Amino acid sequence: MKNLLSMEHLTNEEILHILERARAFENGEGSQLARSYNVANLFFEPSTRTKTSFEMAEHRIGCTVIPFDAGFSSALKGETMYDTVKTLEMIGLDAVVIRAKEDEYYNELLEGINCAVINAGDGAGQHPSQSLLDLYTIQKEFGTFENLKITIVGDISHSRVAKSNAAALTKLGANVRFLCPEEWAGQFEAHHSWDELIHDSDVIMLLRIQHERHSVSKSFSKESYHEQYGLTVEREAQMKDGAIIMHPAPVNRDVEIADELVECERSRIFQQVRNGVFARMAILETILKGRE
Amino acid sequence: MKNLLSMEHLTNEEILHILERARAFENGEGSQLARSYNVANLFFEPSTRTKTSFEMAEHRIGCTVIPFDAGFSSALKGETMYDTVKTLEMIGLDAVVIRAKEDEYYNELLEGINCAVINAGDGAGQHPSQSLLDLYTIQKEFGTFENLKITIVGDISHSRVAKSNAAALTKLGANVRFLCPEEWAGQFEAHHSWDELIHDSDVIMLLRIQHERHSVSKSFSKESYHEQYGLTVEREAQMKDGAIIMHPAPVNRDVEIADELVECERSRIFQQVRNGVFARMAILETILKGRE
Amino acid sequence: MKNLLSMEHLTNEEILHILERARAFENGEGSQLARSYNVANLFFEPSTRTKTSFEMAEHRIGCTVIPFDAGFSSALKGETMYDTVKTLEMIGLDAVVIRAKEDEYYNELLEGINCAVINAGDGAGQHPSQSLLDLYTIQKEFGTFENLKITIVGDISHSRVAKSNAAALTKLGANVRFLCPEEWAGQFEAHHSWDELIHDSDVIMLLRIQHERHSVSKSFSKESYHEQYGLTVEREAQMKDGAIIMHPAPVNRDVEIADELVECERSRIFQQVRNGVFARMAILETILKGRE
């Protein structure tokens, strides 16, 4: 593993190795890297948790983080992604973590770039580090992925998380179902009612309504979305024993999920954030070690 | 002391402890913290000196500063302050330093948050770290607060500094007077002329005219403000021996104070900046130690 | 050398000393500084490579970098450059690296400021650290500057790089020629055709068309600029053996230079970026050591 671009490039073995290293880090093990590496985080879209989570992970495995202010960079002068990353490589960066608006922006970086590239989200494409922390959260809970019933709810067609997770979970043996309004199903076959899904789901994975990308919907107000597709207090009461709630956050309270459920017993929403640091330490370590 | 939210929450003993630790730091003493802590600075409003001062203080007491770009964060996606801070806590932050537009934003953070919260300015509310550095500056100069005549000049009603300082100084035994145009007195009883105040003030504490919050005044140009309420060269000449001039900065030269007085012998304006690093080291140490 | 403001202030000895230290750093030598220094980078204009290059250089010579977000600072509140820098000095900064829109902004800082000032670009003025890395790149290639034929191409009159380099190279014995449209020659005497220059140039130094400062030209489209003044594949074929191509970047591909030449054998464009870190380590070390 020389880069992390898309979940589709990862074998089950690679995924399970990263989860194992995440667990080792959570148990207090140190990094296996031979030296300190220089890393920069290039976030061309707003983010709190992903960027800060990577910063913390980098710090914890002994990397030096060289600040890069994407909102104020030469990209504003029309520089290509290739030239920006090549420049950072020549400055001495060993790895760059990138979030960008363009789907598969990393295709530009496959040739001629020698520093490691970690995709922290590409447009409406993939978000593999989020996917790996989600997998880690599920594995911690259930020990396995085999035959788990996992329901992904929301704007499937625009969600990086949905696409990354659906591919990976299926490959690992889980049974993935989708719930969303007709117009948001995209290429996927989706359910349109909670009735068939709420009772037997092991994991309910809510997606964020992305105000940035489009308004909730022409056909839905926030209130009517919550009523039809949100996880209400009534629906949570119908979930089976041991089932958990996940959300990549930031949460729109009372839209995707009722305000009072965000920190309820079933919710792993803030645990996911905590797990994210361990997953990202594992990602960075695996990639940097693979280049030693 | 688990957090620093408002000067009103501090006892005189807590204030004097912080000033004592600030003095120890200025004298070259090291931090008494048992380990390195992770800190983030969340500045949702522009600031040079406060943010940079905290960054330096954090560095000097051995903290790791995890960068957080408030102008580019999930707050833009409508995330609540609670969710932002809870997220940072789960990522592993031990303390967050926050400046925000909303008065008493920290009320949201009193329950459910386990990391330390340090208020670096809330709307038109309080600015306790500025207040503590002002107190430290006065204590260094006079050794005591008892019976000092302290004149605060400017937009009292909108000033975080005025409110924090007036409360604390009065509690510590000083005699605080206000000077401002009628419309800026707010809840306070104010003088409207320098005549009764210029000769016997030990400290003249000028406030910044806050262009960001409102124009100087409908009734005043910058020139006429300077003439009526500014510290002119003529007025400085009437100050008593040993009296000092303070200003939280940034200074509007020739508005609050004549350009040539900014670095005059009586001025402690840049000394305040220097003292601020020691005061903030003391604040951070006291709060983090109180949680060990 | 207490500051680095403009190439015009440097003697040949000072320049050659910096190049020698850059080479030592490239060869793996460590810094000669007695302690760790605190440095801030104040970039009031967008930049990737210069800011990141300074950050890396500061890190490599053991400095502590205190973050400063110029786009979000008190300068927005109308603070003068003097007051901003004086404040940073009082906070404990030993050196500040500044890029600003105003020509010779540093004149304000010549009196009363005790921390070191390193000019990272002033308006349409100078860009001395870029110039020093260019000189280092040329020296590495040719061993000397004497009698080298160096052709600078582009918007001479608005280019910080052109001005800094022309002055320094001439002083060091090189023969500098300019090529540009009539309207961009400014105070310089320029050629208007490649014909007299392409065959005997040792160095072709292309300048960036600065979209930020003005549109390409009223009289030129990007295509016609490329045709008349750009380095095309045909022109590169006429360059003499051993001649090299330089560009301060970011490159406008197919405007100043044909896309396929950016990483051709003659090109030193990305090598310049790499050399920039060594040159900046040398600059910082020389200035901080000069103050010990």
TrEMBL record, chains A, B, C:
Annotated EC: 2.1.3.2
Highest taxon in the source lineage: Bacteria
GO biological process: 'de novo' pyrimidine nucleobase biosynthetic process; 'de novo' UMP biosynthetic process; amino acid metabolic process
Aspartate/ornithine carbamoyltransferase carbamoyl-P binding domain residues: 2-139
Pathway(s) per entry: Pyrimidine metabolism; UMP biosynthesis via de novo pathway; (S)-dihydroorotate from bicarbonate: step 2/3
UniProt KW keywords: Pyrimidine biosynthesis, Transferase
Record-listed L-aspartate binding positions: 77, 160, 208
Reactions catalysed: carbamoyl phosphate + L-aspartate = N-carbamoyl-L-aspartate + phosphate + H(+)
SUPFAM superfamilies: Aspartate/ornithine carbamoyltransferase
Cellular component aspect of the GO annotation: cytosol
Aspartate/ornithine carbamoyltransferase Asp/Orn-binding domain: residues covered: 147-286
Coiled coil regions, renumbered to chain: none
Binding positions for carbamoyl phosphate per the UniProt entry: 49-50, 99, 127, 130, 249-250
GO MF assignments: amino acid binding; aspartate carbamoyltransferase activity
Subunit and interaction comment: Heterododecamer (2C3:3R2) of six catalytic PyrB chains organized as two trimers (C3), and six regulatory PyrI chains organized as three dimers (R2).
PANTHER family: ASPARTATE CARBAMOYLTRANSFERASE, ORNITHINE CARBAMOYLTRANSFERASE, MITOCHONDRIAL
Reported function: Catalyzes the condensation of carbamoyl phosphate and aspartate to form carbamoyl aspartate and inorganic phosphate, the committed step in the de novo pyrimidine nucleotide biosynthesis pathway.
Protein family: Belongs to the aspartate/ornithine carbamoyltransferase superfamily. ATCase family.
HAMAP family in the cross-refs: Asp_carb_tr
Name of the featured protein: Aspartate carbamoyltransferase
